[in-house]
Every structure is written in C-alpha cells, then in structure tokens.
Amino acid sequence: MAVQVYATDGLKDFAYNIIKEKLLGGVIGLGERIREDILAKELGVSRTPVREAINRLVTQGLVVEIPRKGLFAAEFSTKDILDALDVRTVLECKSVRLCCERITEEQAANLEKIYEQYVEAITNHRFLESSRLDAQMHKMIVSVSENKKLFAYIDDLEDFFTYVRLKKVQDWNSSEIERAIGEHRRLLDAIRNHKADLAAQMMENDMNSMKSLVKEREG
C-alpha cells in the first residue's frame, strides 16, 4: 500500500512540474485552454495525476476553471498584478533582512553567479531567461532565511511573476534594462555586506520599479 501511495505522489509531482514548466515557459499561452486528456496522453500517465497537478495550479492562480467552458491558463488584470506586488514587497523585505543575518560567503558567491548570468541574459534581450534567473535569485535569498513558510509563499509568488512577465517584459528598453541591472547590483552588495536596512530598501525600490513599469504598460 505504501509503495502505491508514493508512486501516485511521484506521478502527481511529475505532472505538476511539467505542466508548470509549460506555463512558465510560454508553451501554454496566457488564456489558452488546457485539456486534461491531451496532457495525460502527452505525459504518458492517467488523468488522475494530471487532474491533481492542475488543481494545485488552480490553487496557485496559474490556471482557472470556468464553469461549462473548461480549464484555461490564467490571465491577470493590472490590479491583480499590483495587489500581488504589494504582498510580495512585504514578504521579500522580510526575506532579505533574514538573508543578511544568515548568508555565508559561499552562498553570497552562488548568488553572485546567478546575477552574472542574469546580466548576460537581460543585456542580450533574452527576457524569458532573465526572468527565470531573477526568480532564482529571489528564491535563493529566501532559502537562506531558513524560513520554510516564507519560502513557500515567495516561491509561489515568483512563479506567478515569471508567468506574468511572459506578457509584460518582452519589450524592455535600454533604460529599463540598465535600471534592473543596477538595482540588483546594489541589492546584492547590501546582502553581501550584511546591511539589512539597506537591502530591504533596495528590495522595496525594486518592487516599486516593477509597479511603475506595470502602470506604464497598462496606462
């Protein structure tokens, strides 16, 4: 019995990770219909783990179920995004303060490597890749905090914003790119020097810049 439970959990996680990757990678476009039967056939599994995976994605807000119409990749209003940014600002500022207290030199060096990849990607207009690397940096910052609940909340939010950026980030201009690189540079410097107040301010500045960008694009 135990083996069967573990196998089911494994298939559910497998289906969840693949479907989420399709959403975050733009393979399933915003607003596109999602068919459980087609995904199950594609993944070589029954519909049960696919349904459970999709239910999890519905809970995260990446998939919506419309009565009598079916399942669709979510689309978000400007207000939805700004509301999420308000929540993210509070959590990220708490996260970076804890990170400043606990980060080691090895962890700081690993964070620096991700930043270097991020700069290379965004400079060369590989925006989807830079978005993933940005999320990776933020997830690493919260992982250093060693707060599992905080990590779970921010992990979901980072996936949300990676998904949102599929539509929002494709036409960044040079000044926006320069701003993003500079703000991340100052944030990492503050973390490495264990300056919690400064790091929290840099994080808040980053969130405010994102809010301004969203408003400009939608205005």
Describe the protein.
- With 219 residues, the protein is mainly alpha-helical.
- It has two domains: 2-73, Arc Repressor Mutant, subunit A; 78-218, Up-down Bundle (Four Helix Bundle (Hemerythrin (Met), subunit A)), CATH 1.20.120.530.
- The chain is built from nine helices and three strands, in the order αβααββαααααα.
- It has a three-stranded antiparallel beta sheet with strand order 1-3-2.
- Strand 2 and strand 3 form a beta hairpin.
- Helix 2 (36-43) packs across helix 3 (47-60), helix 4 (78-102) crosses helix 7 and helix 6 packs antiparallel against helix 7.
- Mean pLDDT is 89; it is low at 1-7.
Show the helix and strand layout.
Blueprint: H1 2-24, E1 33-34, H2 36-43, H3 47-60, E2 63-66, E3 70-73, H4 78-102, H5 105-123, H6 127-145, H7 148-168, H8 174-192, H9 196-218
Antiparallel strand pairs: 1-3, 2-3
Helix pairs in contact: 1-3, 2-3, 4-6, 4-7, 4-9, 5-6, 5-8, 6-7, 8-9
